Amino acid sequence: MKQIAVVMILLNISYGQFTRSQSVDIDEPHTYTPPRHYFQTSSFDETELDDEALARNPLDRGPYFDISASRNVTALVGNTAYLNCRVRNLGNRTVSWIRHRDLHLLTVGKATYTSDQRYQSVHNPQLDDWSLKVLYPQQRDSGVYECQISTTPPVGYSMTLAVVEPITTVVGGPDLYIDTGSTVNLTCIVRHLPEPPPLIQWTHNGEEINYDSPRGGVSVITEKGDITTSYLLIQRARSSDSGKYTCLPSTANPMTVHVHVLNGEHPAAIQGTDRQRANLILPIVLALALALLSRAVTRVSDVGAVR
């Protein structure tokens, strides 16, 4: 009997130890840690978040920025610009826009807080977007702008606006001298556009060029990209091809070049001829002016003599 009692005691001790080990495993705390990207905003510092914040469900953590959009926005001078700020879980907080250059408060919620009414706040509730709309932007409006949430302390997301004015140039202008029978290659380059111009038109002496005209040998090649280039090619140049050619991008300023098709002359000879004509005209104009002045003086003298 003593042996049976000892065995029972040993079994009870073992069962108690097993039960205690099970209870320790069950009561062990399990803390959920959100992924690293969960806390990414321009102002959050992960080291300042306590254990309670780390254990909180991501949907309960308060407002935060959707940082998937680009921070850099390029706009064309005079064309409306939009800086898009997407805020999640805003709740009862407010979104404001601030200009970094002078720390000027531009908008609060949907209201404009500056005398410059070109700045407006546009809210899209379906997308949680709070956009800063800039009407008729100029190059001086370029700089850093911050979308700010009214948390304590406030958190912000900075964006850079670049307002550019497109530049159109024609290589070799403003005057090009081409030998008769050679190929005219007019190269028009358009820079500083947010996107390539939909259309580049060429004109000759104010009239749109017809690439299917009976003259033939006239074609255009356009390469679009960050820098858009249009090539106007005129084969077997003749005197009638001389004149004013204008490159007209649909979203940029036009540029004009004067083409001179030479019949064996040297460009310097043409320029010299122009100077000679000017030298001939100038004495004639001076002679006429002196004759008129002399006549006026004579009339005055005659009037004095009569008196």
Compute the gyration radius: what is it? 40 Å
Count of helical regions: 3
Global shape: elongated
Helix content: 10-25%
Side by side, the strands of the main sheet go: 2-10-9-4-5-6
The computed structural class is alpha+beta
Number of beta-strand segments: 19
Q: List segments where confidence is low: pLDDT < 50 over at least 5 consecutive residues.
A: 4-11, 13-56, 269-278
**Strand residue percentage:** 35-45%
**Intertermini distance:** 171 Å
Report the mean per-residue pLDDT as an integer.
77
Instruction: Summarize the main sheet.
Output: 6 strands, mixed
Order of helices and strands: HHEEEEEEEEEEEEEEEEEEEH
Descriptive report:
A six-stranded mixed beta sheet has the order 2-10-9-4-5-6, with no helix packed on it. A five-stranded mixed beta sheet has the order 12-19-18-14-15, with no helix packed on it. The protein is elongated, with a radius of gyration of 40 Å. The model is unreliable at 4-11, 13-56 and 269-278 (pLDDT under 50). With 307 residues, the protein is an alpha+beta fold. The chain has helices at residues 2-27, 51-55, 267-306; strands spanning 64-65, 72-76, 81-88, 95-99, 104-108, 111-112, 119-124, 129-134, 143-149, 155-164, 167-170, 175-179, 184-191, 200-204, 207-208, 218-223, 228-234, 243-249, 255-262. 23% of the residues lie in helices and 35% in strands.
